[in-house]
Design brief:
The chain has ten helices and seven strands. By secondary structure, it is α/β, with parallel strands linked by helices. The protein has a single domain, classed as HUPs (Rossmann fold, 3-Layer(aba) Sandwich). The chain has a seven-stranded mixed β-sheet with strand order 1-4-3-2-5-7-6. Helix 2 packs across helix 9, helix 3 runs antiparallel to helix 4 and helix 4 crosses helix 5. The structure holds iron/sulfur cluster.
């Protein structure tokens, strides 16, 4: 059965007004995701707290113990069998407390998760700045896979952000823009789950070479599972071809790493896959994995 996609907005008031933020036109750009995340978190702490639509089922101590057990058992996970084994373990231990995060650069992770966690929530950070191809991939995943695609949206629409901070904040302060549109909405969403599954692969960048298969995510306070951490690019494409899994068409058009359209450029063959992200801005991560 294929579930329809749903949409969840971040709690109101997570972004700072310009006068409180000290950022925006005329301010020095911040590419440090932690700085912007802290700013958004401060504003969030002052905002009314809405009733959560779901709650974690395990204490922090229980989740830490589970993360340690998972890494002990699956730390060397390789290939498809390894990825399915750790996902099966997560399904048995945490059931619908597990969410999958997907940038919709490809549908490999949702496909793997649907095999052992049918109907699983697939969180898509709907920043308002995605390529049409990425939104098309999201829609196709929602229509064809046994998952529940959830659009996680920031509290500010793009026009509202423009009105508050000035147009094209991503060019002037990508750290703040990512904080508002990605980091804070994801933080709020993950607060309701026990584990999240990501598509982080070690070979993607120097910041990801040490990514474990299972860890306790100190930043978000839950178990983080990277089932394809050891996969190569060829492993990813091979799985997609063997299983007729969707790939974002941009992947084969010079975009080996796909983020928001204003911050993603085509790269030359053989270049660092992530060199097209925030090119020239001294930023390499949006802040959700750091
Ligand atoms: S990737 Fe660019 S447009 Fe997207 S949230 Fe970050 S700075 Fe903003």
């Amino acid at each position: 059965m294929t579930a329809p996609s749903t949409s969840r907005d971040a709690p109101p008031g997570v972004a700072r007004p310009r006068e409180e933020a000290g950022a925006g036109v005329g301010s020095g750009p911040s590419t440090d995701p932690d700085v912007s995340a802290r700013s958004a978190e401060r504003a969030h702490a002052e905002a009314p707290v809405p009733e959560p639509r779901r709650r974690r089922t395990r204490s922090e101590g229980e989740l830490r113990a589970l993360a340690e057990e998972g890494q002990r058992r699956f730390g060397d996970a390789r290939g498809v069998d390894g990825a399915l084994a750790v996902l099966r373990w997560a399904a048995e231990e945490l059931g619908d407390g597990v969410a999958v995060a997907s940038s919709m650069a490809n549908a490999v992770l949702p496909h793997l998760a649907a095999r052992v966690l049918p109907g699983v929530d697939v969180l898509f950070l709907e920043t308002g700045y995605h390529f049409a191809e990425t939104l098309g991939t999201r829609d196709a995943v929602a229509q064809t896979m046994d998952v529940t695609v959830v659009d996680v949206r920031p509290s500010l629409s793009v026009p509202d952000q423009d009105a508050r901070y000035g147009a094209r904040l991503h060019d002037r302060d990508p750290g703040l823009c990512c904080g508002i549109r990605k980091v804070e909405p994801l933080r709020a969403e993950l607060a309701t789950y026990d584990a999240w599954v990501t598509g982080v692969r070690r070979e993607e960048s120097s910041t990801r070479t040490g990514a474990p298969v299972v860890q306790f995510d100190e930043k978000h306070g839950l178990v983080k599972i990277n089932p394809i951490a050891a996969w190569s690019w060829d492993d990813l494409v091979g799985y997609a071809q063997e299983n007729s899994v969707l790939l974002n068409p941009l992947l084969m058009d010079g975009f080996p790493s796909i983020g928001c359209a204003p911050c993603t450029q085509r790269v030359e063959p053989g270049a660092d896959p992530r060199s097209g992200r925030w090119a020239g801005l001294g930023k390499t991560e949006c802040g959700i994995h750091t």
